[in-house]
Design goal:
- The structure is a single chain.
- The protein has about 375 residues and is α+β, with helices and mostly antiparallel strands.
- Among the domains are: about 1-50, no CATH class; about 135-220, Gyrase A, domain 2 (2-Layer Sandwich), CATH 3.30.1360; about 325-370, DNA polymerase, domain 1 (Orthogonal Bundle).
- It has helices at about 1-10, 15-30, 30-50, 55-70, 90-100, 120-130, 135-140, 160-165, 170-180, 200-215, 245, 265-270, 270-290, 295-305, 325-335, 335-345, 355-360; strands spanning about 75-80, 85-90, 110, 135, 140-145, 150-155, 180-185, 190-195, 215-220, 225-230, 235-240, 260.
- It has a four-stranded antiparallel β-sheet with strand order 10-11-3-12. Strands 5-6-8-7 form a four-stranded antiparallel β-sheet. Strands 1-2 form a two-stranded antiparallel sheet.
- Helix 12 packs antiparallel against helix 13 and helix 15 packs antiparallel against helix 16 (about 335-345).
- The longest helix is centred in the N-terminal third of the chain and has 18 residues, at about 30-50.
- The chain is flat and about 110 Å long.
- The two termini are about 60 Å apart.
């Protein structure tokens, strides 16, 4: 009998709701009549939650964000003790998400580890040190210019090199890839750069010194800080900076849970569906942190609008507004003359299907009571 009930409502409810009812019914050991009552109550709630045909969902969504976001704070959150580990929150972060900025102000990754590595703090710290981008200035105690030899010398910190597992030969090999026309040697605890100059040029040597300081040595590029944090009985590595593609290649990393706040990177590495989910997750996080309450369906609607074309597009004039079919709707947003001239040159037709263009022409808007059309049948004589 219960199976018949589930089959009866299979066409009506989404799979997730059915699974939740099944789990709750099992926990509470419901009888068939009780289960029937549950289904009827859920159906009533489900029907009430549906949106009416002709509802102006765009305006409702815009107002649902606009009103609470006026109470948002304009701040960044700092991880105590680490200057670089800031996270943009509040209104600036919300604007960043919905404008689909290519680079967030404070890129950040949460790197989850596989269960066999996630519970030991020493292992977590070791993996964190492998992830962090190390530059030559972190392995050297000082940089000097030797005028007699026109060379740049850096005194190496062998303790740090040992901690990171970097050997002298490997260091020279890595640096040689970045420095063309420069001979690199190890001389008495120093790494020495000899530029191949045709004539004595002190300016070039100074440039070489600055370039040598920022030379990449090990780790994953663009990850400037790492911080292993204990979260729910496991260690998670919080990273300032983002490079999802390279982090996911690491054997110790749990690829299913590791995530970045850089939406364009999520789109490139994991695809458009993941980017849509990332928009929902990131916006939800901002709203919850501010103690506000916006219906999840508004977020989902916005995420759908931003990703419907197969790429992430911001709610800007070059984003989703440029995709509108109506010339008048595009013109009403920004740069009207450009849109109208282009439409005239290409002979574009505006079918007046949405709200803005009908308001401009003082016609009923195709929403609410303006949705149905009256049709009259003439009786044949």
């Amino acid at each position: 009998m219960p199976q018949d009930l589930y089959e009866e409502y299979q066409e009506i409810f989404p799979k997730k709701i059915l699974e939740e009812i099944r789990a709750e019914a099992k926990d509470r050991k419901l009888t068939n009549p009780q289960l029937k009552k549950v289904f009827e109550a859920v159906l009533e709630e489900y029907e009430n939650a549906k949106i009416q045909a002709g509802e102006s969902i765009g305006i409702v969504t815009a107002e649902s964000f606009g009103e609470p976001s006026t109470q948002m704070t304009l701040n960044t959150f700092h991880h105590s003790g680490v200057a670089e580990m800031n996270v943009t929150v509040g209104l600036p972060r919300l604007i960043e998400i919905f404008d689909a900025r290519k680079m967030p102000t404070t890129p950040r990754m949460d790197v989850f580890l596989k269960s066999k590595y996630a519970h030991d703090p020493k292992i977590a710290r070791k993996i964190a040190s492998q992830i962090k981008e190390t530059k030559l200035k972190e392995l050297a105690t000082e940089f000097t210019i030797n005028l007699a030899k026109t060379s740049v010398e850096a005194k190496l910190d062998y303790k740090k090199m040992k901690d990171l597992g970097i050997k002298e030969e490997a260091l020279i090999l890595i640096l040689s890839q970045d420095f063309k026309n420069v001979t690199i040697k190890i001389e008495r605890d120093n790494i020495v750069f000899y530029p191949k100059l045709k004539e004595y040029d002190l300016g070039e040597v100074f440039k070489l010194k600055e370039k040598a300081k920022d030379a990449y040595v090990s780790g994953i590029k663009r990850i400037t800080q790492v911080l292993p944090i204990k979260k729910d009985n496991e260690f998670v590595i919080v990273c300032a900076g983002s490079n999802l593609k390279d982090v996911l290649k690491l054997e110790e990393v749990d690829t299913k849970r590791t995530i970045t706040n850089d939406l364009s990177e999520v789109e490139k590495v994991l695809g458009i569906e993941a980017a849509r989910q990332a928009i929902i997750n990131e916006a939800s996080k901002v709203i919850e942190n501010q103690g506000l309450d916006i219906d999840i369906r508004h977020l989902m609607f916005l995420a759908d609008v931003m990703t419907v074309t197969g790429t992430v597009k911001g709610i800007t004039r070059s984003g989703i507004t440029s995709d509108k079919q109506s010339v008048l709707a595009r013109a009403s947003f920004e740069t009207p003359i450009k849109h109208i001239i282009n439409a005239a040159l290409t002979g574009e037709v505006d079918y007046l299907n949405s709200v803005v263009e009908n308001v401009m022409l003082n016609q009923p808007v195709p929403l609410g009571t303006g949705t149905p059309q009256l049709v009259m049948k003439n009786k044949k004589k």
